[in-house]
Amino acid sequence: MALDTFDVAEFQKHLTANEFGKKFTYKDITETTMDDALKAANEGAPNGTAIMAEQQSKARGMKNRKWNAQYTGNIYISYVYHREAVFEDPRKDENMMEVAGALAVYMTLADLGVEGINIKWLNDIWVRGHKMAGILVEDKGPLPFDKTKRLCIVGIGVNVNADVRRHPELHTISTSARSQLNGSIVNREHFLAKMSKYLEECMSLTQEDLFQNAIKYQLFQLNEPVRIHSMLNQKVTDGTLVEFLDNWSIKLKDESGEVWTAMSDHYSIRPCATSTVYVYNGKMACPWSSVAMLKCLSSLVNITHTTISLLNDTKLKEGLWKKDAALLVIGEVSMDTQDIDSAHQSFTDILNFIENGGVVMMMGNVSGFFTSYLQSGSSTETTCSLQPTHGGSADTAVPGRLVSLNLKCGDLGQVFGYSINKENITFQETTGQSPEVLACYGNGEAAVLVSTYGKGSCVLIGFNAEITYTEDCVSLSDAELNSLRDTVFVRDELMLCILKRFGL
Q: Which positions fall inside the BPL/LPL catalytic domain (predicted)?
């Protein structure tokens, strides 16, 4: 299925809406479909006329913010809508239509099997703290030929098939339907036909019905701590969500106890973080590994209530990070003789963290070092078999190899991974308590193991799971790189399998 072409005939064959999408224009690229739809409306285009583009060079979102619409394989569309106004205030009526659009996208994604979808006040679609879709409505005033109705342009952008997890800028904030469906390519023609039908239905809902449905799928809960961003004075404060109002505004209470009513064009709210995933980037950390790990986790962790932060040696030693640590992640390390004693002490501190209920994920050579530490009683024994390891900068090519893996979690099957180590790093299944093997090398030896130590858990990953296929440090042939790229979503699912079991 081609990701950069859209079959208009197939879309129209599946379209069941009465008006929305009946008249349809598809473009390879345009500046913005919002302006295209307005131009068509002014030229007499009927209600429901839709204009879709594969790419937009000047896409815009709420508050005239720039919207990245450069990817192919997504849906960027604007509808002409002849609206009978519900509110005297056009902005409140725009809000109502934006909520209708969000609800239509929500239902379409749910039908696909996407899980964990939420409507983030007012009109964004979030999955695991990452944005998947946004809705923009612009009221252009009375219809020239019918003053009882308003001319509105309804714009919807949905990340459908783009691999935004690997985008250098969007990976921390965005996701796509394909990313949430194990890499399965979504049929956009079917998706858009269904979304157009739902949009038409949602636009006809009463204010009360629309309000109740929007609240049902809302990301925020009443009395939940939130971070409040004011577009009026650019201030950020912490507060509490007090109430959703049926005119699409909300009541907020700040830290001083003051309560006020906020509209989405003046305020934005986000969940407050309650935990942190720490990525070690101290002296021993290979820069390319910690950079890749930060990027990988930023795209996969549910960041609704969790932040991701780097942890240097000073902070590691102080120990204050343990108070809100949901997970400590350590990637490839580079050690020489003078690092051995400090490494041994770090492993002792880390094991103490685990035994007291913490969770640590180690990958690459550090997982082998930690296993050696557990099986020994001194720093000399811990590192007696270690060889100097490659440090390198974040953008320096690191010699590596492709490893074949068979996954044991879910129905994920075979996948390829990247390893800079010449030999497979393996683990005995007797490591720790209640060990569970999540992946094996081609020879059947454990490659990913989860074990319990005291009250906590340790995840040992023998290859460099932080490497996807886009990193500058990857050194592989074209064929090997293709194998790495073609199974990237399966590796994502392996990581998600681990993260989700620890509430992340």
A: 9-207
> Are residues 315 and 177 part of one domain?
no
Task: Note down the domain range covering 266.
Answer: 224-271
**CA 238 – CA 229 distance, rounded (Å):** 9
Q: Where are the beta strands (DSSP E) in 231-301?
A: 236-244, 250-254, 259-262, 267-271, 275-280
Same domain? For 174 and 294 the reply is no
Buried b (16+ CB within 10 A) or exposed e, 443-468: eeebbbbbbebeebbbbbbbbbbbbb
Residue 81 belongs to a domain: yes
**pLDDT-derived band of residue 266, with 50, 70 and 90 as boundaries?**
confident
Alpha carbon distance 384, 372 (integer Å): 9
Same domain, 323 and 213: no
Residues 197 and 133 reside in one and the same domain: yes
Residue 375 domain-assigned?
yes
For residue 386, pLDDT over 50 is answered with no
CATH of the domain at 153: 3.30.930.10
Quote the CA–CA distance of 477 and 392 in Å, as a whole number.
Answer: 20
Instruction: Spell out a b/e string for 156-165, using b for 16 or more CB atoms within 10 Å of the CB, else e.
Output: bbbbbbbbbb
Domain match, 428 and 343 both: yes
Q: How many CA atoms within 13 Å lie on the side-chain side of 165?
A: 35
Residue 270 has pLDDT above 60, yes or no: yes
Closest to 278 (Cα-Cα) out of 350, 326, 343, 347 = 326
**Residue given tokens 């509209």 in the structure block:** 263
Under a CB-based contact definition with an 8 Å cutoff, are residues 98 and 123 in contact? yes
d(C-alpha 153, C-alpha 65), whole Å: 17
Give the type of residue at 343: A
326 token code pair: 């949901």
Instruction: Select from 193, 217, 241 the last residue of a domain.
Output: 217
Q: Is the peptide bond before 499 cis (omega within 30 degrees of 0)?
A: no
Burial classification of residue 374, based on how many CB atoms lie within 10 Å of its CB (0-12 exposed, 13-18 middle, 19 or more buried): middle
Tell me, rounded to whole angstroms, the distance of Cα 440 from its chain centroid.
27
Residues 266 and 319 grouped into a single domain: no
Can you give the pTM of this predicted structure?
0.90
The CATH number given to whatever domain includes residue 264 is: 2.30.30
pLDDT for 377 beyond 60:
no
Residues 101 and 194 in one domain: yes
Q: β-pairing, 275-280 with 225-230?
A: unpaired
**Residue 65 in this model has a pLDDT that exceeds 70:** no
Centroid of chain to Cα 130: 4
Percent of the chain having pLDDT more than 90? 56
Residue 478 has pLDDT above 50, yes or no: yes
Q: Flag whether pLDDT at 263 surpasses 70.
A: yes
- 115 and 39 in a single domain? The answer is yes
Total number of domains in the chain: 3
The token pair that represents 339 in the structure block: 């690092």
